[in-house]
Amino acid sequence: MSGRNDPRGPQGRTEPTLGNLDDLDRPAPAPPAPDDGLPRVDVEAPPHRAASASSRARRQPEAEPEQSPARKRGWLVPLALLVVVGLATVAWLNQDTLRGMVPRTSFNDVLSRANAALQAGHLDGTDGTSARELFQAARALEPDNDRALDGLRAVGQAELAQGQKQLGAGDLDAATQSASAARELLGGGTDVDQLDRAIALARLTHMHASDLVERAREALAQGKLDGPDGAAALFTQVLAADPGNAVASHGLDQVGSAYADLARKALDAGDAATAGTAIDKLASLLPRYGDLPSLRAQQAQVQRAHDDAVNQAVTQGMEALRAGRISGSGDDTALAYFQKALTLDPNNPAAQSGLGKVVQALTVQANAAIDSGDDAQARALLDQAQVLAPKSADLAAARARLGQAAPAAAGSSAPATQTGAAPTGAAGGTASASPAAPAKDDASGALLQPSLTPAQQAQVSSLVQQAKEAAQRGDIMLPPGQSAYDLYRSALAIDGNDKAARDGLQNLPATVIQLFNQALQGGRLATAGDMLGNLSDLSPGDPNQGQLRNRLAEAWLDRAEQQLDSGDRPGASQSLDRVRKLAPQHPRLAELTARLNNAGQ
C-alpha cells in the first residue's frame, strides 16, 4: 500500500476520512432484484428525477426582481372603472324602477288615504276626503303613476256596484248619480250602459210612460228645452227605457227642430256664441239631424266675421295706443277699442293684452305726474288703471310713491295720505310701526328720502326678506297677507321709496315666468296655470303671455292624448277643458275632442 493512499499518518496511526462528497445526494442503488429466471428490463428514470440537487443548484437562474405592491395592484384600477361604468349604465336603464324605490312621502300619504277611503266606501264628495278626490290629487302629484289611475278605476267599479245596489233598493236618484260617476271614471262600457237602461226602465215602471210623454210635450210647448224637467231630457228618458216609442221619438225630433231654429236666429243676428251653444246641443241630442251640416257651415261663416270684427278692434286699439290716445271720453281711444273687442270675445288674449298695455301706459303717465309734483293727476290716472288691473305690480309701486311724495313746490312736512295696503308683520298681523313722514324738499326742489326710525327700518327689511322667501316658494298672490305681493306692498306702505321693496315688487312678473317654466318642465301643469294667472294679474300687458299660454295649451293637449291612449276618458275630458280656456281655436283641440267622443260610442 502506497503512502499516498495509506490513511495512516507519519506517526503510523490511521486518520478518519469522509470520502467523495460529490455523490452524497445521489440516491442509493436499489438492491439487486432476485433472480426469478425472467428476462431483465431496464426502465429509464424521468429526466427531472435524474437531475441531482447539485446540478439543479448550478442551473438555478438568477432571481427575478420582486414587483412593487402598486404594480401588483395596477390591474385593479381599470377593473374598478369598468364596474363603476357598468353600475351607472344599469342605473340609467332602470332609472324609473329605482325612482319608484325612493320614498315619496306626500304621494304615498295621499294614496294611502285614498285607499282607506275606498275601503270605507267613501267614494265621492266635495270635502277633499273621498276616494275619488284623493286619487285625483295623487294623479296631480304624479300624472303618469299607474297606482293612482288604477285607484280611480277601482272607484269607478265601486260606484257601479253601489249603483246596482241602490237600483235594487229602489233609490233611483242615488243610482243615477252612481251610474254617472261610474261612466266618468270608467269611460263608459257595457256594464254602465246596462245600469243606465235598468234605471230608465225602473223610472218608466214607476211613472206611466204616457204621463212622462205628456210632461215632455208640455215642456216643449212652453219652450222649455233644457234642464232635467225640459223636453229634451224627458223624451230622452222615455226612449232610454223604450227605444221603440214612436211618440217620444217624434217629440225628440221636434226638440231638435227647436234647437235648429234658435241657432238660425242667432246666426242671422251675428251671435256666434249663442248659435254655437244651440248647435252643440243639437249635435249631442241628434247627431244625424239633417240640417246640422248646413248649420255648421253657416256657423263657420259667422264665426269668421266675428273674428274679423274682434281683430279689427284690436288693431285699431294698438294704433290708438301708438298714437298716444290712451283713454278718454271718445270712442277712438285704445281703451275703447280694446273694451269693444272684449265685449265681442271676453276671452280674447290679444284684447286682454292690449288692455294691459293701457294699464301700463296709464301707470307711466302717473309716475310722470308724480315726478312733476301733480299728485292729483297721478291719483286720477292710477284710479283709472286700478279699475282695469287692480293687482298690477307697477300700479302698486306707483301707489306707494304717491303715498310718500309731497308737492314739489309746497315744501310741507305734513305726512302724505297712505294709499297702500296696511303693513303686515311676520305672523300676518297688522304692523305697529306707522308710515314715515316725508322730509322737506331741499333748495333744488328734489324730494328727500323720509327719515325712518330704527324700528321702521328693521320692519321694512324683515318684510322685504319675507317677500323674497315667499316668491321663492311660489306664494306670489296667495295666501293673503303672506304672499310676496302683499309683503312687498306692506313694506312700501311704511317706506314708499324703499328701493329693495319697489324693485322686488316690479320684478315679480319675471319671477312668475321663471316659476312657470319650472312647473311646465316638471309636468305640474296646474301650477303652471296658476303662474300664468299671476302673470296676468301682475303684468296684464306682458308680451310673453301669448307664448306661455300656447305652451301650456300644448302641454295639456299632450297629456290629453296620453290619457286617451291609456283609456282615461274622464282625465282626457278635463285636460281638453283646460285647453278650451287657453286656446279655444287650437287645431289639435278639435281633433282630440272628436277622438274623445268616438271613444265613448
Automatic annotation (TrEMBL):
The chain crosses the membrane at residues 75-93. SUPFAM superfamilies: TPR-like. Residues 37-47 have a biased composition (Basic and acidic residues). It comes from the Bacteria. This is Tetratricopeptide repeat protein. Coiled coil: none annotated. The lineage of its organism: Bacteria, Pseudomonadati, Pseudomonadota, Gammaproteobacteria, Lysobacterales. The keyword Transmembrane helix applies. Residues 409-438 have a biased composition (Low complexity). Keywords: Membrane, Transmembrane, Transmembrane helix. Residues 1-70, 409-446, 563-601 are annotated as: Disordered. The keyword rRNA processing does not apply. It comes from Dyella lutea.
